[in-house]
């Protein structure tokens, strides 16, 4: 009864702020997202928002699943816009976020920009932190930063390898995902040159993961669902 009464009061209050029909699925969704929004914003965030205003893309951090931009089909960058300061700003921001977040790949939609830009990098230092047997099994070979604008991918070897992978846009989780063994990616560099790169093993996995982002696809769409894991579950139980 109390719950029902509480619900009626809440429903009444919120109906003042919403044109969505109460008890409809849209209403429940809005309610749930509003609640989570209210809980997340700290006083510090309120102050920062007051001073700096609403954040705009390219965000300085990776946006999370739920943001519609991650489900969009990203648009190609017009060739005459590749050297435009806005495009340069997006790429520079992507490099910063890629490196500061310890990522091996990043796409522009993950910073809120629905454009077909992706980058990959597997630094030597990062690969040294991986146990040698894992390194060998996953064929993780270091490679320098590679940026592709308007990339296209071709599968060279359609054998699939299944390994756990994660995504900064689904922070804190991982799952086993099958990926093709070898692919070819081609596209434009930031200075407008056309390049092609043959990637196999772990590099091919990163390419496929980032290419999926450009089409609004996340690894959870392709994973083995029974392997979906909160990577901190043991700490929660500790
Ligand atoms: Zn991702």
Automatic annotation (TrEMBL):
Instruction: Please name the Pfam families in this protein's record.
Output: Pep_deformylase
For biological process, the GO terms are: translation
One cellular-component annotation, GO: mitochondrion
The family database entries (InterPro entries) matched by this protein are listed as: Peptide_deformylase, Peptide_deformylase_sf
Q: What is its EC number?
A: 3.5.1.88
User: Is Hydrolase one of the keywords UniProt gives this record?
Assistant: yes
GO terms (molecular function) for this protein are: metal ion binding; peptide deformylase activity
Which superkingdom?
A: Eukaryota
UniProt catalytic activity? N-terminal N-formyl-L-methionyl-[peptide] + H2O = N-terminal L-methionyl-[peptide] + formate
Specify the enzyme's EC class, one word: hydrolase
Q: Which UniProt keywords apply?
A: Hydrolase, Metal-binding, Protein biosynthesis
Q: Is the Metal-binding keyword given for this protein?
A: yes
PANTHER family, alphabetized: PEPTIDE DEFORMYLASE, PEPTIDE DEFORMYLASE, MITOCHONDRIAL
Role, per record: Removes the formyl group from the N-terminal Met of newly synthesized proteins.
The family note in this entry says: Belongs to the polypeptide deformylase family.
Protein's recorded name: Peptide deformylase
């Amino acid at each position: 009864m109390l719950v029902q009464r509480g619900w009626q009061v809440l429903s009444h209050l919120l109906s003042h702020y919403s044109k969505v029909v109460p008890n409809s699925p849209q209403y429940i969704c809005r309610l749930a997202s509003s609640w989570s929004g209210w809980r997340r914003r700290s006083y510090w965030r309120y102050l920062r928002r007051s001073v700096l205003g609403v954040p705009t893309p390219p965000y300085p951090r990776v946006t999370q699943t739920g943001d519609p931009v991650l489900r969009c089909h990203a648009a190609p960058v017009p060739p005459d816009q590749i050297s435009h300061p806005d495009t340069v700003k997006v790429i520079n921001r992507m490099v910063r976020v890629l490196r500061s977040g310890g990522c091996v790949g990043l796409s522009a939609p993950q910073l809120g920009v629905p454009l077909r830009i992706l980058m990959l990098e597997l630094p030597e230092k990062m690969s040294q932190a991986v146990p040698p047997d894992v390194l060998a099994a996953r064929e993780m070979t270091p490679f320098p930063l590679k940026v592709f604008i308007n990339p296209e991918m071709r599968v060279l070897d359609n054998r699939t390898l299944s390994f756990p992978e994660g995504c900064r846009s689904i922070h804190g989780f991982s799952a086993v995902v099958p990926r093709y063994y070898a692919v070819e990616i081609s596209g434009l560099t930031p200075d407008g040159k056309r390049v092609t790169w043959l990637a196999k093993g772990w590099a091919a996995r990163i390419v496929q993961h980032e290419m999926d982002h450009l089409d609004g696809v996340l690894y959870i769409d392709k994973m083995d669902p029974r392997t979906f894991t909160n990577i901190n579950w043991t700490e929660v139980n500790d």
